[in-house]
Here is the input.
Amino acid sequence: MDPYLSQALRVIFLVLHILSAVAWLSGLFADLVFNRLIRSNNERANVIALRMAQNRLGGFAGQLGGIGILITGFGLIGVAGYGFLGLINPTPSWLVVKQVVYLLAFVLALALIQPASRRLGGALAEAARGGDVAAAQALAVPLERYALFSHLLVIVNIVFAVWKPTWFVVGG
Here is the structure.
């Protein structure tokens, strides 16, 4: 591949990768704002509306960021000539750690976050029709924990992306 094209692709993928991480991590900051607004508001309709907006924004940010990270990450390893988890081509240890952490976040999103978000969305719709707001609020608690853990995994990956410790190389 032409070195200029390779460099241009690397820069494009890297910028999009960083923007995807920002999109994913924006959910953390949105959660902080929404949770503060929800705690300071006792009016039923406002709590329901805030929770609905929080749930939709968090889902959108997570999906946009997660898929963006996946696509641009594969683009970056392709341009750099690295492998995925050390398969096919050698992969630096920092990148293997990032890939494993991403897989954990991806599984967390599919197995826990999305189902919890769907349950919360249904409970919020029911609460908006006159149902129990407290039941919907209770469903938000585990979702907030899963989302926080997901955000922490993103931060761990950012640390490894900046630090890049090369303890070993995987594959070959």
